[in-house]
Every structure is written in C-alpha cells, then in structure tokens.
Design goal:
The protein is mainly beta and 114 residues long. It has no helices and 10 strands.
C-alpha cells in the first residue's frame, strides 16, 4: 500500500511563501492533487498535475499564487505557495486525483497570520 507523507507547513505572515512536499512510498502513475481542509469546511482540491507533469489545473482561489509540480524519479509532489492569505489557513494533503480513501496521510498545517 502506498503511503503519502506531507511536510513543509508552518506559520507564515500574509504575503509570505511556503513550499509543501509530498513523499510517496512508491511510484504513483496517476494524476496527483493537493487538497486542503479549513476548519469547519469540506476538503477541497486546489491543484492537480497530470501523471507526466505536463498539465496542471488550479482552483480559482489559488490560481496565479500556487504552483504544483512533481518529480517522478523521486516519487515527490510539491506545492509552491506564494502571496499567502489568511484564508489559505488549512491542513494540506496530497492524494491522487481523483482521491483514494486509503491514500490520505496526516496532512501538514499551514497557518497564515494577518
């Protein structure tokens, strides 16, 4: 069974940047996505990347600020987050797109202060 481990979260001021990493225990040939869940809200897909890394899509809320990438040789997926806003505060997860229930990890907390 594949395990996904997210890292790179933290506390940052509005306007700052963070880079999240997702390490997979084995190669995943599927499209991958970054998801986030804010307190009291449903988990949402915010960025997706195709299996080869050539096609990316973003939710309107992060478009132009976040960049998803992957390194298939290292079984890694990344999320570069710039111009962070307080409304980006959430737990961030990676998973395939569409997601698999058995792939959810612990996530990484991102907190953006105003």
């Amino acid at each position: 069974q594949v395990q996904l481990v997210e890292s790179g979260g933290g506390l940052v001021q509005a306007g700052g940047s963070l880079r999240l990493s997702c390490a997979a225990s084995a190669r995943i040939s599927n499209a991958m996505g970054w998801y986030r869940q804010a307190p009291g809200k449903q988990r949402e897909l915010i960025a997706s990347i195709s299996s080869g890394g050539y096609t990316t899509t973003y939710a309107n809320s992060v478009k132009g600020r976040f960049t998803i990438s992957r390194d298939n040789a290292k079984n890694m997926v990344y999320l570069q987050m710039n111009s962070l806003k307080p409304e980006d505060t959430a737990v961030y997860y990676c998973n395939t797109n569409p997601w698999r229930a058995d792939y959810w990890g612990q996530g990484t907390q991102v907190t953006v202060s105003s």
